[in-house]
Amino acid sequence: MAETKKETKEVVSIDEIMSKLSLEDQTSMKKLLYGSNYEPLELPETVMNFAKKMQFEIGSYRIISTPEQVRKARVVRMAALQTKLPLPTTAPVIEMRAAIWKRAEEAIELAAKAKVNIFCLQELWTMPYFFCTREKQPWCEFAEPAENGPTTKFLQVLARKNNMVIVSPILERDEVHSDVIWNTAVVIDNHGDVLGKHRKNHIPRNEDFNESTYYFEGNTGHEVFETEFGKIAINICYGRHHVLNWLMYGLNGAELVFNPSVEAGDFSEVIWPIEPRCAAAANSYFTCAINRVGTEVYPNEFTSGDGKPAHKDFGHCYGSTYITAPDGTRTPALSRVNEILLKIHFYYATAY
Ligand SMILES: NC(=O)NCCC(=O)O
C-alpha cells in the first residue's frame, strides 16, 4: 500500500474567506482586489451537468471589453486545467500516466462542450513533480519525445476532434540528441498538427526544486505561436520571476501568455498573484497562471542540501490558477485544494 500523507487543513481560497462577509462587502472587496472588468459567465445546463458527472468544478468568467465600431470583435474562449495526482507516486509509470490522461481527456471533453478554443494543461502534467527526489528511476521514464511521443499523439486526436489548440507541458526526451531531457511545452493546433514547442528558459535550483539535476535552461528562445484563435506563448513556471522573459514574449507579439507551473510554499504564494498580473499590465497581453494542487508524497526521504531534515514531500501545491487581462483586471483564483477547470471568454478587436 502506498504511503499517503494526511493533508493539514488548507484554506480553500481567498474567495471562500470573503464569502463570510456581507454581499455588499464582498462586492467591494472583489472590485478592489480583482478590478471591475470581469463578470461570472453562466454556462449552459448541459455543460454543468457533464461537469458534475465528471466531478469537475468549473470557474468561468468573461472579460468585459468595449467592441470597436470599425474592427470586428474577436471572441477567444480559453481554459486552463489545475489537477492533482490521481494515484499515489508509487503507482507504476504507465498506470500513473494513463490515469492522468483519462482525467485530462474528461476535462478537454468538458471544455469542448463549453466551446473552448485554446486549452492549456499544467507544467509537467503527465507526472508527479519528482525533481525534489533527485532520483533517476523510475521518474525519467516519464520523459518522451515532444513531436511524436505518446502524450502528443494522444492530444493530437483530441485537438483535431474538438477544433481546439492544446498546450501540453511535458518532460521532453530528445531521442535524436542522446536522450537529453528538457522541460517543454508542446503546442498542438486545432487541426491536430504540432505547431512547435517551447523549452523552459529559466529553471529553479532552490529548496526542493532541483531541476538542474535533470535538465538545463532551454534553447528555443521566446517564440510566439500564431494559432487560428490568437498569438500565444508559454513562459514555463520559474520564468515567471524574470520580467525580461515576459517582455520578450510581448515584443514578439504574444496576445496571451500561459504560465504553467508547479508551486508550493509561503514565499511563492505571496508573489503568485503579483507577477503574472503585473506582466499582463506591463506588456499589454493576457496571462494565465496555472498551478497543480495537492501534496505529493514520495517513497524515499530526500534532502536538497539546504540544511533541512530529510523529508518525503515538497509541500502543498496551492493551485490558485487565474487569468489577468491587459488592463490588470483578473479573475478570482481557483481553489487551493480542488481540481478545477477555469474557462474564460475574452473579446478583442482583430487586426485586418
Ligand atoms: N517548477 C518550478 O519552476 N517551480 C518554481 C519554484 C520557485 O518559484 O522557486
UniProtKB/TrEMBL annotation:
This is Beta-ureidopropionase-like. Keywords: Hydrolase. PROSITE patterns: CN_HYDROLASE. GO terms for biological process: beta-alanine biosynthetic process via 3-ureidopropionate. SUPFAM superfamilies: Carbon-nitrogen hydrolase. The keyword Signal does not apply. It comes from Agrilus planipennis (Emerald ash borer). Residues 83-352 form the CN hydrolase domain. Coiled coil: none annotated. One of its GO terms (molecular function) is beta-ureidopropionase activity. InterPro entries: Aliph_Amidase/BUP, C-N_Hydrolase, C-N_Hydrolase_sf.
